[in-house]
Amino acid sequence: MSEQAERVIALWVPDWPVHAYLSEHEEEGSINEHLTLALIAQHQVVACSQAARLAGVRVGLREREARSRCPDLEVHPHDPEVDVRRFAPVLAAIEQTIPGVEPLRPGLCAMRARGPARYFGSEEAAAATLIARMVELGFPESRVGVASGRFAAEQATRAFEADPGVDIPSPGVRIVRTEHTAAFLGPLSVARASSLDFADVLARLGIRTLGALAALPEDAVRERFGSAGVVAHRRARGLGAAHAAEVRSRDPEIELSVDCAFEPPLDGADQLAFACSSSAEAFTRGLIEHGLVCTELRVELTDDIGIRHERTWAHPSHFTTSDVVNRVRWQAATVPRDPDRGGSGIAEVRLTPIRTAHAASHEPGLWNTAPDERVHHHLSRVQSLVGHEGVGTGELTGGRLTAERQRLVPWGTRAETRRAPRSRVRLRDGPWPGRITGALPNTVFTQEVSAELRDNSGAPVWPTEDDVLASHPARLSINGKHLTAAIEAWSAPWPLHERWWAGGRAGYRIQVLLEDGDAWLLRYEHGHSGQPHGPDTDTQDAPGSGRGPSGALDRASGRASGREAVREIYPTGRWLVEAHYA
C-alpha cells in the first residue's frame, strides 16, 4: 500500500445516551447490569442498556415491539442535548491526559496516536492510560481502539477477540497494526463505511464486504458512484479523506462567565450594582487575560424564588467594567416587584459574554471611526444618571411616513442588534408602498402642521379619484399663513393606504416646489367619515358630482360627463405638512 493513513486512537463509551440520562437524573453513572432501560425518539429505540439487549431489545426497534420483547423495559424519551452536555466534562478530563481531542459524537472521540505513543512509550501504554482514566471517571466498560485512520480506529473499538488482525494487550484495548489493516477491515460489512442506501446498492451489485469494495479500482468507483463512493472506498482501504487531516482537535473551551450569589438577596438596583462591581471587574479582567473583549453581553438575574430575568445587551465598541455595572443596574431596575412577596430580591447574578472579539481589533487607529472618547465618556455618564433610554441617537427605520422612519436608539446599543417585538419590527429595506424615494427631507414634522392649496382663482385644490389634482395649485399656506412665493411645479398625487382591510389611514401625498427654491412634502388625509361627499352637501345628488342617489360615487356617469364630473370628490379631508426640503 503506497499511501498510509495516520495512526489514530479512538475512545468509545458504549451506551453513552443511557449514561447521560442516568447522570442527568442524579443516579449512578455506571449502568446497573440488571437495569433494562431504553431511550425512545419518534417511537423508535435510540439506545438501550446491556440488560435490555440481552432481553432482545435492539436499537432501531419500534417501541411497541421493544416492550413486547421485554415487558419490564423502562422507557424514557431521548434528549440529544443531554448527551452533548454530559459528555463535555468527560472530554475535558481526557484532554488533561492526552491533548488534541476531536469529539466525533457524544460517547466517541479520537486523537492522534503519534504524540501520546512517544510520551507514554508505546501505543499500548497510551491506550492503557486512557482506560485507567475512564475507570476513574466511572466508565469501566470504555474501549480504546488504535489503528491506521480514524475509521479503522472506530471499528477497532467494537472489535472482538476473534476478529482477524486485532491485538488485545490489556482489557478494553484493541490495536490493529498497520500491516493488518486490510485483514481487519476486509470481512466487515459495507454498511460500516457508507450509508444504508449506498450499502444496499453495493449489495445488489454483489459487493457486500469492505474487502470486495477495496479490490475495485478507485477511478472506476469515482466514475460509477461519485464522491460518496470514493469516501467509502478509501475507508475500505484503511485510508482517510484525501487532502484532509484525520483528526481535527477542538479548541479547548474557555469559561468566561462570572457568577455571584447574595445571601440575603438584594432588592435595590443601586445596591445590586455596587455588590456586582467586583464581579464585573473580574469578568472584564478574565477577557483581557485571553486577549478578548466583549461586544455582546447576557445578564441573568435570579430572584429568591428561582425566577430568572435574562436580557442581552450590545455595545458599539466593547464593554468596560463600568458598562457592565450599568447594565446590571438598568436591568435590575426593570425587574417587576410583587408587593405580596415581601422582602424579595436578586439572589444570583450571572454575566456571560455572548459575542467576543480580539482586543487588538478594538485598539484605536489613525483613522478610527469609533466615537470620540470624551463624548462617549460624558454621554455614558449622563446615561448612568438618567437611565438606559435617557440618551439616544437617531436611526433610520422602515415606514411609509417620514416621521415613522426615524427612532431613537439608546446610546451604547448597536442598532442592528436591537430587537423589537414582532408586531413592531420595521425593516428599513422592506416593502413600504407609498413611501418617498430619492433624497430625504431636511425637516420632518412630528406634530400636525396644517396646509392649504389653492389655485389661481382662490379655490381649494383637492385630489380626485383619478389620482390627480382637481385644478392646478398656485398658492400654498402653512398654518393659515400664505407663503409669498408661488408654486412653480408639483408632483402627481400618489395614494397612501395602510391596513385598508381594517379601516386604516388612507390619503394622498404630493410634493410641491416654490419659486424661491423651497420644496414641501404634503399629505392629504380623508375625513373621519370616510365618505367622499363635500362639507356643504348631503346625500342628495349634486350637479355635476357624478354621484348616485345614495351619495356614493358613480364612476361610470362621472367619467361619461367629463373631468368636471369628478373635479372635487374628496373635499372633506385636509392637507398636512409632512416635511420640508430646504
How would you characterize this protein structure?
- The protein is of the alpha+beta class and 582 residues long.
- Among the domains are: 7-161, MutS, DNA mismatch repair protein, domain I (3-Layer(aba) Sandwich), CATH 3.40.1170.60; 258-370, DNA polymerase, Y-family, little finger domain (Dna Ligase, domain 1, 2-Layer Sandwich), CATH 3.30.1490.100; 443-581, no CATH class.
- It has 16 helices and 23 strands.
- It has helices at 16-24, 50-54, 63-69, 80-97, 114-120, 123-136, 150-157, 181-185, 196-204, 210-214, 218-236, 269-275, 277-289, 321-333, 373-386, 555-560, and strands at residues 7-12, 37-41, 44-48, 74-77, 101-105, 108-112, 143-148, 173-175, 258-266, 292-303, 308-314, 346-358, 392-396, 406-410, 443-444, 450-454, 475-478, 481-482, 487-490, 494-497, 506-514, 519-525, 574-581.
- Strands 15, 16, 17, 18, 19, 20, 21, 22 and 23 form a nine-stranded antiparallel beta sheet that branches.
- The longest helix is centred in the middle third of the chain and has 19 residues, at 218-236.
- The relative contact order is 0.06.
- Residues 415-425 and 528-568 have low confidence and may be disordered.
For the residues shown, what is the average pLDDT? Answer: 80
What value does the Rg take, in angstroms? 37 Å
Percentage of helical residues?
25-40%
Low-confidence region ranges: 415-425, 528-568
Shape field: elongated
What is the helix tally? Answer: 16
Find the structural class using helix and strand composition.
alpha+beta
> What is the CATH topology of the domain at 7-161?
MutS, DNA mismatch repair protein, domain I
End-to-end Cα distance: 81 Å
Largest sheet: 9 strands, antiparallel
Q: What proportion strand?
A: 15-25%
CATH architecture of the domain at 7-161: 3-Layer(aba) Sandwich
